[in-house]
Write a structure and sequence with these properties.
It is a single chain. This protein starts with a helix and ends with a helix. It has helices at residues 5-8, 13-32, 42-51, 56-67, 73-84, 92-103, 108-121, 125-132, 138-152. By secondary structure, it is mostly helical.
Length: 153
Amino acid sequence: MVSTSYLMENESPLECRVQKRLEDKLRAAFEEDPLEDGMHHPAEKIIADALRGTDDSKVLTWLKAFSLDSARASIAASVLQCLGRQDHPGTERWRVGLVRDGLAARDVEIRDAAVQAAELWGDRGMLTVLSAHTEPEPWLRDYVRDVAGDLGE
């Protein structure tokens, strides 16, 4: 999914294996069963289980990297969508940063997944990020505006 060499530089061999195993599980889940809107996906459980681990800050770093991997944008967007379905992973600051970075992606699938995550998490800090975003794709621009409007109420 993501070029993990930069992620693995400061990690132990065990952490590298855990990261690779998570990456492989997610990739396999999406290859076997593509993500559909409104439908539960097995990757949601994979992500939830990973987040329940002992060092969720490492897992959050890995999931963020997987979610923003433009080389595999379709899988990255699917990871981000499933991550958005989690009950407020990380801190609000982390979630807002992930959405901000997702909105900055060149790929429209990743930007769409970022807006979906912002909508599902509903953090107040998302309003600033969504309002500051200039979206070139008309349908996604409308969606951003709608979500920002809902968060501003």
